[in-house]
Amino acid sequence: MLREALLGLFLGTFTGITPGIHVNTLASMLRDVVLSPVVLFAMGLTHTFLDVLPSTFLGVPDGGTALSVLPAHRLVLRGKGLEVVRIALVASFLATLFSIPLIPIYIRLAPLYRPAVGKIAVIFLIVLLVATEDGVKRLYALFVVFVSGAVGFLVLSLSMEEPFYALFTGLFGVPVIVSSIGSGTRNIEPGKPEVEIAPTKLAFFSFYGTLSGMLASLFPAFTASQAALLGTFVSRDERSFLTVVYSLNTANFLFAFFNFLKTGRERNGIVALMEPLGLESLPPFVLLALFVGLATLLYGEALAALCAGALSRLPYRLINFLVLVFLIVLAFVFDGVLGLLALTASSITGYLAVLLGVKRTNCMGSLMLPVLLR
After folding, report:
1. N or C: which end of the chain has fewer CB within 10 A?
2. Sequence-ordered alpha helix ranges (H) in 169-273
3. pLDDT tens-digit profile of 53-112?
4. Residue closest to 250 by CA, chosen among 23, 47, 25
5. Do 317 and 181 form a contact (C-beta atoms < 8 A)?
């Protein structure tokens, strides 16, 4: 089991630090290798700890952390990049700890899910999003919700290998990277990892993120990214919001796995590749979660410092240009011309929110509208 756990750590580290490569993508590529549930679980959990790196220093989002890109970039430009990484690692580890005592409650709730409840939650989120804008911007926000929803519905209805890659990279990644290229930023300083948020506040928002991740895993209509929207209504600064997002991302993965053990439902791409398991498998996987969390917490910051240090010695505009080219090439590799068209449409929609001066969170209509139309 230890050898399998270490292999999962290695694979999850690779996907976590590589822009554009999601853990589900690599797992699908390795489908023929027949990875064990231990490898897949360790791989997926490690990814949730380390996907902070490309989304922070390069602006390339992951499905669960797409909304963290702009707050993280604001801190990076103030020389606080390694602080973002430490917040993410600690928040993810706390989410792992907080998830364990919630398991008995969760396994009683999981079988009670009904699709109508998920749709009501999505409608509530849309109303909340629009209502938090001011004046005429409420109309703009509603417009962005529906445009991004139309794009999301179209992209997700196409026969594509990686539709979420094109969708999230276009909506949240490409606009940030292009803006960075045009901003004239020459280089970045990773800064020091000291966290400027009180430990009690960090624990509170991590617990809130854990509960939100649990909620998201119960409802397939309510994704991790949609649940992260709730963080925008309770957190008043970048650090508390990032704590919510990263703890939510990790908790969502863990509870989706617990849901799989209890009901057999496949709430993410990793469990979809696993053989059927039962609740009798829960104790060893809880121990595995603690092992993976501790291991990633120990080496994650050093790895981030190494990567950030290398990036700081290179021209930042050149790095972003090369990353942009890589993302475009990746879209073509995944889905050919269709992938490029989907990436272009999503990128234009992402810029629409910027041009209209509304929050980019409104682009989450790309997932909410398809849910309502199912």
Report:
1. C
2. 174-183, 199-218, 224-229, 238-263
3. 887 877 655 555 555 566 777 787 778 888 989 999 999 999 999 999 999 999 998 888
4. 47
5. yes
Determine the Cα–Cα distance for residues 245 and 237; give it in Å rounded to an integer: 13
Question: What was the pLDDT predicted at 179?
Answer: 76
How far apart, in whole angstroms, are the C-alpha atoms of residue 43 and residue 65?
17
pLDDT at 227: 62
Angle at 153 between CA 152 and CA 155, to 5 degrees: 65
Residue 84 CB contacts under 8 Å (≥ 6 apart), including other chains: 52, 56, 72, 75, 76, 242
> Read out DSSP for 7-45?
HHHHHHHHHHHSTT--HHHHHHHTGGG---HHHHHHHHH
How far apart (Å, rounded) are the C-alpha atoms in residues 82 and 184? Answer: 22
φ/ψ region of 162 (left if φ > 0, alpha if ψ in -120 to 50, else beta) reads beta
In the chain, which residues have pLDDT < 70?
A: 28, 31-34, 59-70, 183-187, 220-236
pLDDT digits (tens, 9 = 90+) for 243-252: 988 999 899 9
pLDDT of residue 345: 95
Query: Residue 242: what are its φ and ψ, rounded to 5°?
Result: -65, -35
Cβ-based burial of 112 (10 A; exposed 0-12, middle 13-18, buried ≥19): exposed
What are the Cα distances from residue 65, in Å, to 73, 88, 187, 247, 339?
A: 13, 10, 24, 10, 21
C-alpha dihedral, 362 to 366 to 367 to 369, nearest 10°? 90
Q: What is the pLDDT of residue 212?
A: 87
Burial class (CB in 10 A: 0-12, 13-18, 19+), 242: buried
Spatial contact of 110 and 259, defined as CB atoms under 8 Å apart: yes
Token pair belonging to 42: 């360790």
**Contact yes or no for 23/8 (Cβ under 8 A):** no
The pTM (predicted TM-score) of the whole model is: 0.83
Looking at residue 343, the DSSP 8-state letter turns out to be H
258-278 burial, b if ≥16 CB within 10 A, otherwise e?
Answer: bbbbbeeeebbbbbebbeebe
